Amino acid sequence: MELIVAVLLTVTTAATPLLLAAMGELVVERSGVLNLGVEGMIVVGAVVAFATAQLSGNPYLGALCGALAGCAFSLLFGFLSLTLVTNQVATGLALTILGLGLSGMIGENFVGQPGVQLEPIAIPLLASLPLVGPLIFNQDIIFYLSILSVVGVSWFLFRTRIGLQLRAIGDSHGSAHALGISVIKTRYLAVMFGGVCAGLAGAQLSLVYTPQWVENMSAGRGWIALALVVFASWRPLRVLAGAYLFGAVTIGQLHAQALGFGIPSQFLSALPYLATILVLVLISRNRRLTLMNTPASLAQSFVPDR
Amino acid sequence: MKKTLLALTAAAVVSLGGTAAQAATKICFVYVGSKTDGGWTQAHDIGRQELQNHFGDKIETPYLENVAEGPDAERAIERFARSGCELIFTTSFGFMEPTLDVAKKFPKVKFEHATGYKTSDNVTSYNSRFYQGRFIQGQIAGQISKTGVAGYIASFPIPEVVRGINSFLLGAQSVNPDFKIKVVWVNSWFDAGKEADAAKALVDQGVDILTQHTDSTAPMQVAAERGIHAFGQASDMIEAGPNTQLTAIIDSWGPYYIKRTQAMMDGTWKTQSTWDGLIDGILTMAPYTNMPDDVKQMAMETEAKITNGELHPFTGPVTKQDGSEWLKDGETADDGTLLGMNFYVMGVDDKLPQ
């Protein structure tokens, strides 16, 4: 029992940054914008969160500043791709490269310094439940926010008027513009939300996952988040399933190795990717539904010329 | 995608090294990780700084960080060769083939590859007998561990890493014949999150000593959090675990870099395979901390014995994992077998990935 809880706790820690970053990117892509800079925003969020927490001694301030840094970085992407109408794919890639380099520079003096950890917050009564108590109700604030983001994004996209407008923009920005919806403004807000989520995901890496700063500590998680969004066919609950499945297989394969089952480790290392893609493709196999969920004007630039 | 990006990033952060006059000789370094990783690459970068300080403005020492092993490495090395580097140090096992390929195209440039086993007219290989340090660590683990099981976080199944695992286990078994190790491969040299996950998985499964052949301090941090002990790798990691680190293998490449650069300047540089150890000072042990005095005493004695050649970590009788005899009583392993080691010794709780 104790082992199960310990294993599942590690799984939630591994899944949370993927879930947050993917949930942010989902909203961005639903509005028709493809921001490939997730990796860059995560790593900038991570270094700013670590630096702030270290200097102020307050990890909450660190998490907040990490989120804001992700947001500021996403605004750079927004300004280039939405206002100056640059190519979104190229701009996003540039954002990632810039983020990796910039974070290394900012973080140079923070390498090897002891970090400040975001402590878990126990929710009264619920935290003492067996199994789910320690797993779900005795976690750090970023975990709670990641779960809230799934609920919030689902509700926002499919139950609110502005969510409908955002999806309309993603499907046909020309028509949405003709209806009088402000395409650029909505997309800016979506991109900023994506930045906040990625920044928080970064803060989780440097304040919870491994409370320290090392260069490139995002280690490709931004790309996994991007892939999750596509394979989950832009559905929030499937992103949740995908992120946790990925986390579970990642941790599970390490345990399988430690138990010495004798399965080749290269295969086990590839397993999280294979399993996640397989499962998400299977649940998204209805072509009509997938097409319906795909934002039709994804990655297309919009110039309001009429 | 990720690898390309890393290479691009690496290219974007090329340091200009010294700002010496144009006549300065260019000695270039290719790193697999970040120079501030707290482990492997940091040790090489400290060596580079010692080299720079030794020769002052007679040389420039540009370096490339975060160069992925594989095709990206070849591009990075070739760029250096083209840009007028006279001596290029490539500091990761996976750079071996790319180094040899580039060396063929640039016969006048000299190359030095770390931890590999192939050489050519203008490619030298250099390595350190890390396994000597790992044997000492194993002995300490054998004394300290209460569960009799250590966790080993490994990177890639190459001879270098396998040799470390075997040496650690033989050291541990020399004081506790029933000692076991659990091996987890993370298939990466440097991924703090993954290394931490592996460390947690191992601790959850009951190991009470962690050792690693990866480059970040994350496993040390997990060990500190869970209140067990661990060994540092490549650099002294005591800051990540003041009450956790027992000792660490410290690589000190500086003297070697200075020696080889001098040889190149004197025109005496020749292809060779260097495999130095404790006695040459290329490998040193961090202070023995967080352990009882008698264990410390034993560790220091073993270190002295290995240094003066009295003790070879791979001394028979040693049985392979499959039960066949490898070394007879009193027989020591030859360097050829050690350099190409692709089998476990008895007692490793893992199947070696081939």
The CATH topology of chain A turns out to be: ABC transporter involved in vitamin B12 uptake, BtuC
Largest two-chain interface: A-B, 46 and 48 residues
Low-confidence segments of chain B, given as residue ranges, are 1-6, 8-21
Structural class of chain B comes to alpha/beta
Please state the average pLDDT score of chain A.
92
- Which CATH C-level class of the largest domain in chain B is it? Alpha Beta
Number of helices of chain A: 13
What CATH architecture of chain A do you see?
Answer: Orthogonal Bundle
Number of self-contained structural domains of chain B: 2
Q: How many β-strand runs of chain B?
A: 15
Q: What overall geometry of chain A do the principal axes of the alpha carbons give?
A: globular
Assign an overall shape of chain B: globular
Helix share bin of chain B: 25-40%
CATH class of chain A: Mainly Alpha
Count the DSSP helices of chain B. 11
What is the count of β-strands of chain A? 2
Strand order of the largest sheet of chain A: 1-2
Strand and helix order of chain A: HHHHEHEHHHHHHHH
What would you say the CATH architecture of the largest domain in chain B is?
3-Layer(aba) Sandwich
Percent of sequence in beta strands of chain A: under 5%
CATH topology of the largest domain in chain B: Rossmann fold
Any chance you could write out the topology, listing elements then pairs?
The complex is a heterodimer of chains A (306) and B (354).
Chain A: H1 2-30, H2 38-56, H3 59-83, H4 88-107, E1 121-122, H5 132-136, E2 138-139, H6 141-159, H7 161-171, H8 173-178, H9 183-209, H10 221-231, H11 236-259, H12 265-283, H13 287-293
Chain B: H1 2-12, E1 25-30, H2 40-55, E2 59-60, E3 63-64, H3 71-82, E4 87-90, H4 96-105, E5 110-114, E6 123-128, H5 130-144, E7 149-154, H6 159-173, E8 180-185, H7 192-204, E9 209-212, H8 218-226, E10 229-232, E11 245-251, H9 254-266, E12 273-276, E13 283-285, H10 293-307, E14 318-319, E15 325-327, H11 335-339
Helix pairs in contact in B: 2-9, 3-4, 5-6, 5-10, 7-8
